[in-house]
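Dear U.,

For the methods section draft, I wanted the exact inputs and outputs in one place so we can describe them consistently. I've listed the two proteins in the order they'll appear in the manuscript figures. Please don't edit the token lines directly; just add comments below if something needs changing.

First protein:
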Amino acid sequence: MNHIAQSWKALLVTAALTLPSVAFAAEPATMKDGMMVDHKGMTVYTFDKDTGGKSMCNADCAKMWPPMMAPAGAKAEGEWTIIKRDDGMMQWAYDGKPMYTYKMDMKPGDKNGEGYKDMWHMPKH
């Protein structure tokens, strides 16, 4: 087999092993140590003012409470849905509630946003 054919075969094998994991994306957040965290291990929160699957946290609020943005092509699955924000971007929601992280959580495991102004809460999974 010549070098080009070997390279092509290696590329096809790599693609075959990689594509199934792309097709079945993981949930946007998981439970760890009794709290829901994103893929970076940062605690996620819901906002009491969000109703009807709509985010009420925009502009300055979204700077302090970054929305969990859904990438292009993301698909709803189980309790996870995708909502359209006022700016047209897509955000993950769990059980109908838009999900956020908190800027003041500096490292995985921090939960400084829990109970903030009695409006921000860690979701129960």
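Second protein (the one for the lower panel):
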Amino acid sequence: MSAPKLRNLGPRSAAWLRQVGLRTREDLEAAGAVEAFVRVRRAGFRPSLNLLYSIEGALLDCHWQEVPEARRLQLAEAAEAATAQLPDPRARTAAGPVTTIVHDTADRDDAMPDDTER
């Protein structure tokens, strides 16, 4: 985040937010806490829910632990629903089985002649 520094957001959180295009308080307000959190996750970072609560606290200008428990539950549920469709950056698709194809060249016109025909 650029000046002024927002409450609850340390250097790493601010860097993540900058990297996903959220550079000012206005950017953060426009996106909202859940969308900002999802953007960070989508970018491949692995934030904890504390980032979500910290963003909400920054927007409310309070310590993240002062965000009411009911609101934190709403935020967590919304973030989980929004990130459920994101691919797991640690998951890798297993390679498919390897198959070997042997081509029979005896019936082809352009097949190389064997040594006996030379």
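Candidate sentences for the figure legend, describing the second protein: Residues 57 and 66 are 7 Å apart (CA to CA). The helical segments are 11-19, 25-42, 49-60, 69-83.

Thanks,
Y.
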